[in-house]
Amino acid sequence: MASFVTLSDSIVEENNETKLAQLVQQMIQYCSTSGKPEAVPQNLLLKLITMLNVDYMLSLKTMACALLSLLCHNDPDTKVAVVKKEVLRPIWNTCTHVCRDGLPDLESSSHKRLLQYLEQMVLLLRKLSYGEAYNQFQILKAGLIKLLLQIADMQNLYFYTYHPEAVSFLRNFTKEKDLIGKVSPLVDGEKEEILSQYLKCDSNSILQSASSFVVELYDTTDKTVDVVVKEEMLKRGLAWPEIKPPLNTQKEQNQKISQSEYLVSGDEIKDIPESTDDWLDIRVSHVISPQYFMAYVGGQDTLSTVEQVQKTIAEQVDSKGVKLKKPPEPGQFVCVTLDGMGHCRGQVGDMSDSDKRAHSL
């Protein structure tokens, strides 16, 4: 097999699509087996990014994205260099085109090719953003997050909006009412604590200058009592359910009182209306703390899909999980069994002698 330098020079000089595809494929194989040099040639990065801008076949663009991901692996300087060479522009153009025109017909060959290209683009973005505050900010600034969310939910309404019934209720309930919004800033350190539970990268540099607030909306039309709009929506199952705090009092332990039936107030336990877990757009999968939880978001179609995926995984993996025959390498996909949270698929990111981290998908 040709050396890295030889392949790099050939890719930079070649313009024929067929020959380029062969060279890029050889480079991918070389990097996968022999690794890459510490210093990646800048003209190679520029050539690969240019290939994403040119009207080449999708299979070639897909391989170009895959090669860029390999070249960026565990290389902060290359990650930043790729973003500074405007790799986000062709990605934004492709996402905008898909959001505007939709995907090709399901039965067509172009449908599969476009999905493969989108998959490699997302993996490249994930590689570029991991641990790099500058790249994270540029991706956010380019508006790519919103586009990717839209692509991920093309068959339904955007999943980060309220259910249509909730929108209708909120509009009618607040029409011609005297509304007051109570704005409370998040306590110092609370924002970082929330982010640290979900983001496995340094995001503080991006958000440290941003102020975060909690907003509560009140209907004050009746001067004798304030109506909390959120509470009215909760009663109808039209908003996020409130996860009640765990009960730790001795009285609760002795009486074995269900958390769904009672609520602690100091040392007293007071009856509260029995709540339901049936919500229009959400299914809680795991409670992290009294205020934060993981959940599946979407209508019945989404929940049915989740149930089918869970069933398939459960059939393939036994309750104890299947141990790997050898340590996974960075980039490999693994199935992880999590206590109380079922199974998830993850990609091995970084590793050391005693630790391996897999990022869930």
TrEMBL record:
InterPro entries: ARM-like (IPR011989), ARM-type_fold (IPR016024). This is Uncharacterized protein LOC106175263. It comes from Lingula anatina (Brachiopod). The gene is LOC106175263.
